[in-house]
Design goal:
By secondary structure, the protein is mainly α. It has one domain (8-69). Helix content is 53%, strand content 0%.
């Protein structure tokens, strides 16, 4: 990904990390790196991957999209 001459490869990850920082990181103070890792893992697995509405899917959650596909 993200090679010289192909700057658009990295756009989806840049967007994800921006959203993560805006929604989670900038609103909290973590005492340890381990605490930050646990919190971010819980956020990504518990909310972002299952319940968060995504514009690319017509503002449906990933869980809704899986139910529709089944």
């Amino acid at each position: 990904m993200s090679r010289k001459g192909n700057c658009l490869d990295n756009a989806p990850m840049e967007s994800f990390f921006h959203t993560l920082k805006v929604e989670r990181v900038h609103h909290r103070v973590y005492a340890t790196r381990g605490e930050a890792r646990r919190d971010l893992f819980a956020y990504i697995e518990g909310f972002c991957n299952s319940r968060r509405l995504h514009s690319g899917t017509g503002y449906r959650s990933p869980a809704d999209m899986e139910r529709m596909a089944a």
